[in-house]
């Protein structure tokens, strides 16, 4: 049996993996769905210091305190930034990385560097609350950009999305041992919409990997296609 650690993207929380986690657990696997500091049920913990390093530490701490080894660490969207940093800081605990329609950073890059248009849009709704710059304020437009079209799912999403601390998007990723991180087996699971709009370098990175799969859906594939997402995650362990 495998251990999956599912890391969400910007504005989301562990809640977005409810359906996928249920399917993986049904097959007997351990599944963790941490919510990053400052998001969802942990939104009250956001501070002016909440950044990418904070979110990496969230997941590294989970691996340590739960004594997880050989983890399959999955990152959606911004979560690709987080899991790359996690692999660097907890190398001995990570067995496989899965980029779920995610960012594929190199050391020294911030999400704002590699997803320029998306981050410009995100910051267009910026508000400073208690000294924290927050972006991606929940709206129907944001939900639609995630690829959610069903009215019931849209309403469900709107009740759960939270604004995201901008500092985590603009902080460059620091890697101590990038060469070792690149040796970890990794899988790319891409949503079809992204393959049509990604810039050339981003497209190149999302087509690399030990396995590369495509799901015909929008960005939030763990919500719109939970069965297929779970099936592909199981394939990473040969099921």
Commentary on this structure:
The strands form two sheets. A six-stranded parallel beta sheet has the order 2-1-3-4-8-9, sandwiched between helices. The N and C termini lie close together (10 Å). The protein has 13 helices and nine strands. It has helices spanning 18-26, 52-65, 79-89, 111-114, 116-123, 140-145, 151-158, 167-170, 178-181, 192-197, 200-206, 221-224, 226-235; strands at 3-7, 30-32, 71-76, 94-100, 127-129, 132-135, 164-165, 186-191, 211-215. Helices cover 40% and strands 17% of the residues. It is an alpha/beta fold and 239 residues long. The longest helix has 14 residues, at 52-65. Helix 1 crosses helix 13 (226-235). The chain is globular, with a radius of gyration of 16 Å.
Could you write a compact summary of the structure shown?
The protein is of the alpha/beta class. Helices cover 40% and strands 17% of the residues.
Name the features.
13 helices; 239 residues; six-stranded parallel sheet
Q: Per the principal axes of the C-alpha atoms, what is the gross shape?
A: globular
| Spatial gap, N to C terminus | 10 Å
- CA-based gyration radius: 16 Å
How confident overall, as mean pLDDT? 96
Largest sheet: 6 strands, parallel
Compressed to H and E, one letter per element, the order equals EHEHEHEHHEEHHEHHEHHEHH
Give the class from helix and strand content and strand pairing.
alpha/beta
Count of alpha/pi helices: 13
Q: Unreliable runs, pLDDT <50, ≥5 residues?
A: none
């Amino acid at each position: 049996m495998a251990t999956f650690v599912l890391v969400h993207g910007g504005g989301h929380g562990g809640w977005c993996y409810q359906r996928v986690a249920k399917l993986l657990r049904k097959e007997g696997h351990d599944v963790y769905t941490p919510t990053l500091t400052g998001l969802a049920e942990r939104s009250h913990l956001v501070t002016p210091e909440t950044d990418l390093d904070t979110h990496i530490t969230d997941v590294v701490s989970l691996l340590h305190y739960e004594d997880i080894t050989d983890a399959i660490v999955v990152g959606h969207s911004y979560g690709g930034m987080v899991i790359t940093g996690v692999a660097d800081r907890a190398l001995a605990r990570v067995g496989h990385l899965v980029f779920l329609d995610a960012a594929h950073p190199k050391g020294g890059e911030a999400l704002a560097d590699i997803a320029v248009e998306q981050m410009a849009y995100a910051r267009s709704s910026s508000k400073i609350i208690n000294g924290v710059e927050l972006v991606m304020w929940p709206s129907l437009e944001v939900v639609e950009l995630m690829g959610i079209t069903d009215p019931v799912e849209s309403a469900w999403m709107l009740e759960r999305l939270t604004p995201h601390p901008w500092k985590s998007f603009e902080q460059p990723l620091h890697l101590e041992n990038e060469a070792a991180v690149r040796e970890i087996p990794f899988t790319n699971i891409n949503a079809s919409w992204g393959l049509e709009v990604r810039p050339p370098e981003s497209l190149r990175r999302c087509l690399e990997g030990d396995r590369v799969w495509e799901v015909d859906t929008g960005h939030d594939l763990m919500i719109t296609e939970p069965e297929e997402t779970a099936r592909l995650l199981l394939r990473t362990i040969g099921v």
